[in-house]
Structure formats: C-alpha cells, structure tokens
Design brief:
The complex is a heterodimer. Chain A is an all-beta fold. Chain A is built from no helices and seven strands. Chain A has a single domain, classed as Sandwich (Immunoglobulin-like), CATH 2.60.40. Chain A is about 0% helix and about 50% strand. In chain A, the strands form two sheets. Chain A has a four-stranded antiparallel β-sheet with strand order 4-3-6-7, with no helix packed on it. A three-stranded antiparallel β-sheet of chain A has the order 1-2-5, with no helix packed on it. Chain B is elongated and about 70 Å long. Classes of the chains: A mainly beta, B alpha+beta. The interface between A and B is large, with 36 and 38 residues.
Chain lengths: ~100, ~150
Amino acid sequence: MAGPMKMRATLNGGVTDVRVLMTHPMETGQRKDPDGKLVPLHFIQNVTLKVNGKTVVESQISQGISRNPVFTFRIKGGAKGDRIEVSWIDNHGETNQTETAVA
Amino acid sequence: MNPLRRTLLAAAAAIVLKPLAALAATWNKDGFGAKTTADALKTLGATQPLPSKDLLIEAPEIAENGAVVPIEITSNVPGTTSIAVLIDKNPFPLVGKFDFMEGALPFVKLNAKVGETSEVRVVAEARGKHYVATQEIKVTIGGCGG
C-alpha cells in the first residue's frame, strides 16, 4: 500500500513553488536484507504535475532517486487557489496522488 | 455460449482495461537501463550536447551522505522543454528526465543517490538542440549500499 504524500504550493513573486514528498522505498535491487537476500527493485517511474487539470511537468525517474523522494517544481505565475495535483506510478503499477491549492 | 454475456464481458473489459492503458506512462527503459552515460545520452538523442553556462546546477561539492544528495537545476536556455539528470559513476547513470510543458518553468530540485565521487551531468533540450553542464560531487559515504 502506498504511503502518504505531502505537498505545499506557495506563490512567491509571480512564481509558484511546488514541493512534494512521496513515501516510497525506492529500492535499487542491489541492497541486501539482513538475511543476505537481494531486496527486489521497487521504485517510482513516473511523476506528473498538473495545474487546474492541465499537465505541466511529466517526469520519468529511476531507482537512483533517493528513498522518500522530494521534488520541487516551479510554475510560471499561478494564482492563490489554483489546484495543484501530483501523481506517481511505480514499477509494480502502484500509484498514489495528492492535491492542494496554491497558498 | 451466451451472446448477451459475451457482450457484457467485452464491455466490462473495455471499461477496466482503458484506465490501465492511460496509466501506463512513457518510461525510457533503454535510457534508464544504460550502464554508461554515453549509452544513456544516445537514447535521449543527445550524443554531442553543447556546453552551456545558462544551465545552472546547485549541488554540494562534498556530500557526506551519498544516499541523499540534493541537486537543483535551473535552465536559462531559451525554449528549454526538458532536463535530464545523470550521475556518471552510478551503476545506471540516468536518474531522471523532466519534460516541461506550457506553464512550468525549466527547473527541478531532487534528491539523488550518488554511489561514489562523480560528475553530475545535466542535459537540457531546447529548440531541437541539447545543452550540457556538469559539476563534480565528492562522496564520503556511498549511497547505493544498505
């Protein structure tokens, strides 16, 4: 089950900063568990950022991104109350999403 | 064989399968599977990117913990539509590619794993051309172990 996400979108001098945190192990497939068995590859592959329903950033990422990924994106302009949505999908097909309003 | 049942099943399958297809977003399997920067760059169509001073990397020169290295990238190259981030010495150098559409600024900040001291290489695409900037990150504790 996908863990919680956290997101904050703040308007600052004509630019909206979107900072999003995802809960995910981002396993590289090279790490061994305490029994010496390889922990299988498990990582987020795609992250999408939408503003008021319109996609503005499409990301493809690898297991080289740190555990519990944190990303900051920037949106040109924006207004207080704009709806920001971020969703992800991992290599197991698990997904999660969150949304917030620009503050 | 019950024709009505067949029709209903087909309709149900169409409803269930369609959203699944929509979820299957693009993922550059060859690029992310490449073991060298050169091979990864080939999959991005960026074999000979032009060095650019308008591509800014903000990252620590020395990372104490390679498991979480913050890297901030800003492209001031006009018309930038994508930014790719590679860590040359990682087992799989390409860590991310970000496509920016109308409304987004060509900027991203992320945390990457850096296994050992390496160049971080940022490749931006703008108006059909590729641009590159690099910065070395020294790692005292690797990021790919336990």
